[in-house]
Amino acid sequence: MNCSEESVGTRSRRSTPSPVVRLNRAVAVAHSAGLRPALALLAPLLGDDRLDRYAALHAAHAELLHLAGAHADASAAYARAIGLTDNVRLRAALSRRASAMRSGAGPNAS
Fold first, then answer.
1. Which of 40, 49, 80, 105 would staple 100 via disulfide (CB 3.0–4.6 Å)?
2. Residue 77: helix, strand or coil by DSSP?
3. Half-sphere exposure of 39 (CA within 13 A, CB side)
4. Which stretches of the chain are DSSP H helices?
5. In this predicted structure, what is the pLDDT of residue 107?
């Protein structure tokens, strides 16, 4: 591979952010521009097979849906995230968030 081929490959990787980077961007957008644009950024990630079993995606989706007041969808996303993680503390935290949402507590209640 010559230098020009290598730099094209490097530029290509830099210009196409990974799905996890795109997930992080969606969360940042939620804080800076609002829930609607953040959920729009998450939509294609939710259909990405590489992230189907990534608990953090479903947890972030649940949180954004919860904040948006879409509690039925948020509950399903929380359940998906809880089912995907082996991390006991994360599972407990997500369970508390889902439970607080179901009891009518605001998103900052846990």
1. 105
2. helix
3. 15
4. 3-15, 19-32, 35-46, 55-68, 71-84, 88-102
5. 57
- The class level of CATH for 3-102 reads mainly alpha
Cα separation, 40 vs 44, whole angstroms: 8
Please name the residues in contact with 97: beta carbons below 8 A apart, sequence gap of 6 or more: 62, 63, 66, 78, 107, 110
CA–CA gap between residue 80 and residue 83 (Å, rounded): 5
What tokens does 73 get? 């969808």
Residues 97, 59, 93, CA angle at the centre, nearest 5°?
A: 35
Token digits for 59? 């947890």
The model's pTM is 0.81
Handedness of CA 37, 108, 75, 17 (dihedral sign): positive
- Chain segment 62-104, per-residue pLDDT in tens: 999 999 999 999 999 999 999 999 999 999 999 999 999 999 8
- Residue 16: per-residue pLDDT: 87
Read off the tokens for 12.
């290509």
